[in-house]
Amino acid sequence: MRPRFDLVRVEPDGSATIAGRGQPDTEIVTELDGQEIGRVTATSDGSFVQFLSLPIAQVPQMIRLWVALPEGGRLYALEDAILAPAPVAETSAAADPQEVLSSVPAESPVTAQEAGEVSLGKDAEQVAAQTDDNGKTDQSANLAAW
Fold first, then answer.
1. How many CB atoms are located within 10 Å of the residue 66 CB?
2. Which residue stretches of the chain are H helix?
């Protein structure tokens, strides 16, 4: 019987829970990108669970399950689990809006008269008319218009 995943959950710190099913009382091997990272023996009903610590990576990773065949070789699960890369932290320059703004050249402001009159259109005027004192609109009226 091929092993299979029932659950793969990986936390941002790399803590992982992997659960599934396989042949009862058989050792199931877990690989991450081709390297063995764990072994667990399925219970008498074929279920198993592993708690692992995975390395945090900036590229996708693949988890595979397999069992050793009595005559040699491996019987792999039909499905693999693909782990998304860890999010990249923002740089300090992008996090500081003052630094970003200081690199933008200043231009002379354009007045409404110089740009010409801008019409909001009938739909925008209806939304503006439905805005209450707190700046909120009655969305049910907008949906009815559609």
1. 19
2. 92-95, 97-102, 112-115, 121-129, 139-145
Q: Is the pTM of this model over 0.85?
A: no
Q: What is the pLDDT of residues 1-40, one digit of tens each?
A: 999 999 999 999 999 999 999 999 999 999 999 999 999 9
Question: Which CATH code for domain 4-83?
Answer: 2.60.40.10
| Distance from C-alpha of 36 to C-alpha of 65, rounded to nearest angstrom | 10
Domain edges within the chain = 4-83
Tell me how far apart the alpha carbons of residues 47 and 43 are, in angstroms, rounded to a whole number.
Answer: 5
End-to-end CA distance of the chain: 55
The secondary element (H helix, E strand) that includes residue 39 is strand 35-41
